[in-house]
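Contributing new records

If you add data, match the layout below exactly. Sequence lines come first and carry their own label; structure lines follow with theirs. Keep one chain per record. Anything else will be rejected by the validation script.
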Amino acid sequence: MRKIELALASMVLGAIATGSAHAQSKPTEITIATEGAYEPWNFTGPDGKLAGFEIDLANDLCGRMKIKCNIVAQDWDGLIPSLIAKKFDVIMASMIVTEKRLGVISFSEPYAPTAAAFMVEKSGPLANLPGTGATIDLAGDKAKVEQELQPLRDALNGKAVGAQVSTANVAFLDTYFKDVVDPREYKTVEQHDLDLQAGRIDAVIAQKTSLTATLSKEDFKDYTIAGPTFTGGVFGQGIAAGVRKDDTELKAMLDEAIRAAKSDGTINKLAQKWMKIGLE
């Protein structure tokens, strides 16, 4: 009986070791998911093909890792559940690293910082929001942050503000403005941009790079970024690639490739190409 128990124990340990080795073996082919609706980070072009900063970056990283990559589009709110369900292997969709997300998935080293702002109508009542041109670090002293935000709370009191569902922008409104604004959640940024244009909401909150892309369109020439830029706090630790917690080898490969792409200037060049700004 003792021999049988030892044999079973050995088999179990062997299976665990084999499973761990399999989970951490170097992949030769992966699928990367993006939203495909967040210009200039990732979007679907007129030809139906995915394009943008993260598409170019994903292809560059895959070349550095010497693995084959397939890039697919997935609705934003289904990205993390589908990653966990193993429908794909990596998320590259301008996803911010937050403590809540770190509870369910892992992230690579960040490849871009985060900065958010409001977009409003140029000739509207919010065109001169307090703090325009300044930056508020939400990770700073709580009393100071509240003091800096109070003029904005006063200006936005009773206004309808749009944000994309399941983003740090929604968390920002919920944390600092839920008692003074009417928050509206949208499936995509395009939807809240169109509602702003139609006058159904008074402002939107989104990443500045996304807003800049919107403002470059002729249809949005009458709109502008107003108020301060927001960083830190609910806006997390930067933008990174999401992976499953047990894919440690893939995470290590991504980290190494991202560090190399930063070091040789590739990420900055791609940012200049797609966002007209550097990320260094």
